[in-house]
Amino acid sequence: MTDDAISWLLDSDPALRWQVERDLLSEPPGVWEATRARVATEGFGARLLALQDADGQWAGGAYFPAADSAGAAGVDDDGQPWTATTWSLNALREWGLDSAVLRERRTAELLDRNCRWEYDNLPYWGGEVDCCINGYTLANGLWLGADVDGLVDWFLEHQLADGGWNCAWEDGSTRSSFHSTLNALGGLLAYDLATGGTDVSRGARRAGEGYLLQRDLMRRLETGEIVGPWVGHFTYPFRWVYSALNAADYFRRATSFDGVSPDPRMAEAIELVRAARQPDGTWLQGEPHAGRAWFEVDAPTGEPSPWLTLYGTRVLDWWDQQFADAGG
Q1: Per-residue pLDDT for 122 more than 80?
Q2: What values do phi and psi take at 234, rounded to 5?
Q3: Cβ–Cβ under 8 Å, residues 212 and 247
Q4: Torsion sign over Cα 191, 239, 178, 269
Q5: Can you say whether residue 116 is alpha, beta or left, with left for phi > 0 and alpha for psi between -120 and 50 degrees?
Q6: pLDDT band at 72; cut points 50, 70, 90
Q7: Cα separation of 39 and 159, whole Å?
Q8: What pTM was estimated for this model as a whole?
Q9: In order of start, what are the domains of the chain with their CATH numbers?
Q10: For residue 219, which phi and psi values (nearest 5 degrees)?
């Protein structure tokens, strides 16, 4: 990456800058930790924290905003709103906010008392029937110190025979989904990172990873065809949608935790990520997922995206270094 591209990435919100310092520049902890601490008081993190309701929620809802909330104003009928509690917690966690900030606000306790899922009015930290939602809830609950151990058991009970998960299981689906599987894996990896995991949780995670790897992270098992156009559609925020970039970043984190080398079956997906890199070392923002957001956090469609450039560079650096170390 050029010096100009690095300078461009560093001239960004603290939520992104600290990750550039840690993951791309290998700065000492004292540098990136100081930048990370600013997430709570500056930029995107501070703006989103200021939008939290007194009852612990955002926009008065769990997955969708309450109809009379500010987060529902001007909602595009063609897209899902991204302003409610789950999406706000996801963003703050992914941006590196110190969980102590929300723990001091007693967010976990407030949500336990005040927040219910739109599905059957179920308690927030117990999750509901959707694999993606439960993956987010598991990760967010671990981050905030909520009791979410029951969700680990839920994933074990709802893992399909092919190794993955599908949010449509309730409708009788027995075939896993790329989207659902990746979001479920994100929750289980968060559990293993936070607790060390168990043989059972790690086994379930590896079976889910195997589902994706058996399909080269991008192809149908039966025909070898690309599973969908979304595999190569890169846009930030990722939301619930699968892409080769989002999946590759998951495997980067998982292999680091597990202490194993990348699986060669990822190679085609990695090259798809590499092919999207521009001559100046950046990645361009794709068409964002439709729906109201509190505020924009990345570049407009077609322009160089700082977030995608962080993710893409980090994935390629990891992959290339692993194989260089192995003499490949």
Answers
A1: yes
A2: -105, 120
A3: yes
A4: negative
A5: beta
A6: low
A7: 36
A8: 0.95
A9: 1-41 (no CATH), 42-325 (1.50.10)
A10: -125, 155
Rounded to an integer, what distance in angstroms lies between the CA atom of residue 178 and that of residue 215? 10
Give the span between the Cα atoms of 118 and 17, in whole angstroms: 35
Measured CA to CA, the distance from residue 30 to residue 36 in angstroms comes to 10
- pLDDT value of position 327: 61
| Tokens (6 digits) for 80 | 């899902």
The Cα diameter of the chain in Å comes to: 59
Q: Please count the helices (runs of H) and the strands (runs of E) in the chain.
A: 14, 2
**The pair of three-digit structure tokens given for residue 290, joined into one six-digit string:** 């439709």
* CA dist., res. 61 & res. 292, Å (int): 14
Q: Roughly what angle, to the nearest 10 degrees, separates helices 178-195 and 199-214?
A: 150
Q: Alpha helix locations (H) across the chain? A: 3-10, 14-19, 29-37, 43-49, 85-94, 99-104, 107-114, 131-144, 149-158, 178-195, 199-214, 244-258, 267-275, 306-325
Cβ neighbours around 77 below 10 Å, total: 6
- Please tell me the distance from the alpha carbon of residue 171 to that of residue 168, in angstroms, as a whole number: 5
Give the pLDDT band of residue 69 (cuts 50, 70, 90). Answer: confident
Query: What is the band of 75 on the pLDDT scale with cuts at 50, 70, 90?
Result: very low
